[in-house]
Amino acid sequence: MTSEDTFKKIIAHCKEYGFIFPSSEIYDGLGAVYDYGQAGVELKNNIKKYWWDAMILLHDNIVGIDSAIFMHPTVWKASGHVDAFNDPLIDNKDSKKRYRADVLLEEHIRKIEDKLSKEVGKAAKRFGDAFDEKKFLDTNQRALEYRQQAGHIRDRMNDALQRDDFDALRQLIIDCEIACPVSGTRNWTEVRQFNLMFATEMGSTADGALKVYLRPETAQGIFVNYLNVQKTGRMKIPFGIAQIGKAFRNEIVARQFIFRMREFEQMEMQFFVPPGTELQWYEKWKEKRMNWHKALQLGDEKYRFHQHEKLAHYANAASDIEFAFPFGFKELEGIHSRTDFDLSQHQKYSGKKIRYFDPEHNESYTPFVIETSIGLDRMFLSIISNAYTEETLTKEDGSADERVVMRIPPALAPVKLAVLPLVKKDGLPEKAVEIKNRLKFEFNCQYDEKDSIGKRYRRQDAIGTPYCITVDHQTLDNDTVTVRHRDTMKQERVKTGQLPEIIAGKVSLKSLLEKLG
Ligand code: GAP
Fold it and tell me: 47: which strand partners?
């Protein structure tokens, strides 16, 4: 099965089991906008809580806010979004399809790199244990050609993007002989800039409506509240402000399910530090954020850093944490050293003094900022795509059976346990409901009595429930139940009184947070 097939199955599974639905589906959906269903919203809330608690509970010097989506329009002028939050777009004249010029080129480079990987794979097979990959890449004629080709295109693209030279970008697309995937032709328009912000109007037109934007990042809500929080919270630098909230971007290349959406959620933290110390803090936050991801135990090899070569004009260092999604390693989170750009800009545009007075050194300065910015939906996708597992099982009679199990980290699982009466009679449902009613104050529980016990286990596996508690006739005699573990499917018999401790041991966020210190 190709990774593309797996990805399609994950998307179908998300819909079938109430994780994610296309928005307004009865009207055929809306491009790159999605709704979270009954299982999805629980998983999403658990991810938010894991992030929020890791920021707020584990750091005495980080506090949270929740700022409005609408902000004064000058905010976006000051931040540079009105003038520079653009994508370079190109249209194919025959298919009338619109593409991001840099994405067309990136995909072309990826195809060359795929060819290179195939050559490496073939050589590795041929030479076996004696294979030296570095030597092969440095000496094999074909490998050298592919590397050179990809490097040359990337350099030309970065150079054109850096200089905003759209003619050069178009010329590169023509030189690479890139054809439109729909029409197959190379009949391209000029490259044009397209602003990604959604605009709307506030107030009635008679009063003179104000053009406002749906925020494209949550960060600016933090910057404009820097003074409020610093003063009212009596915060001493270094300190951070965290926020979770919706962001909106009119993405042109919106695809890969919830990877690139038009309405999405961000979890951002701005950490304010003295000028000159920012690169030390940048390294610290890179490490902290990587540890946060790895504590989930999806596999350390699934993450890697990608350092930005082309820096935004306001940054003096930037890295992404990339995750191995089914469609390859892609950005999951950004860690940026944003200098004093944003606060200085807001000082300039608002005319308000935005500085910090350091009483110890008796000096005042504009703080520098390290930002950690992660897309909640992308984080959701990393969990869900890693969790999806198809298993072939052998039944007691020797025949084969299949199950799909979502191996979601237990602390993030939407439902923590299901209480299931073995049969729908003999007082078992009543006993099961009683047990569920005791546990529901601590854990998200489900009660299910419909269909055979095997079918009910499968339903819980499909949403990633770590524990199934089965109530049988023995329960009525000695107050014991069987506990079935999702991943191993092993069952153990325990006293009902032991359940809270057993379940909490595995599903509480506490053990995850403790790993982070
Ligand atoms: N304040 C900095 C900022 O917004 P960004 O790299 O544009 O930086 C940060 O976005 C994170 O937000 C990304 O790493 C990604 O996880 C998420 N993100 C960005 N655009 C997105 C989109 N269209 N759909 C889903 N997530 C997105």
Answer: none
pLDDT above 90 (res 311): no
Q: Homologous superfamily of 415-516 in CATH? A: Anticodon-binding domain (3.40.50.800)
Q: Please give all residues whose beta carbon lies within 6 A of any atom in ligand 1, as ranges.
A: 217, 219, 249, 251, 260-261, 264, 266, 268, 331-334, 371, 373-375, 377-378
pLDDT of residue 162: 82
| Nearest alpha carbon, ligand 1 atom 12 | 375
In this structure, the residue with its CA closest to atom 26 of ligand 1 is 375
> Considering only 34-38, 164-168, 311-315, 448-452, which range has the smallest mean pLDDT?
311-315
Every domain range in the chain assigned CATH 3.30.40.230? 86-193
Q: Per-residue confidence at 397, pLDDT binned at 50, 70, 90?
A: confident
pLDDT attached to residue 164: 86
CA distances from 324 to 48, 305, 331 (A): 21, 11, 9
What is the Å distance from ligand 1's center to 374 Cα?
6
CATH class of 86-193: alpha beta
C-alpha separations of 445 from 20, 40, 396, 432, 461 in Å: 20, 15, 29, 11, 14
The pLDDT, as a whole number, for residue 396 is: 82
Name the residue of 256, 331, 335 whose CB sits within 8 Å of the most ligand 1 atoms, as the mutation to test its pocket.
331
Q: Ligand 1 pocket: which of 266, 342, 372 to mutate (most atoms <8 Å of CB)?
A: 266
Atom 18 of ligand 1: nearest residue by CA position? 375
Q: What is the CATH number of domain 1-81+196-398?
A: 3.30.930.10
For CATH 3.40.50.800, the residue range(s) in the chain are 415-516
CATH 3.30.930.10 intervals, the chain? 1-81+196-398
Among candidate residues 442, 390, 385, the one with its CA nearest the CA of residue 408: 385
For β-strands 445-447 and 417-421, DSSP reports them as parallel
pTM of structure: 0.90
What pLDDT does 200 receive?
95
Sign of CA dihedral 252, 258, 263, 264: negative
Residue 358 β-bridge partners: 363
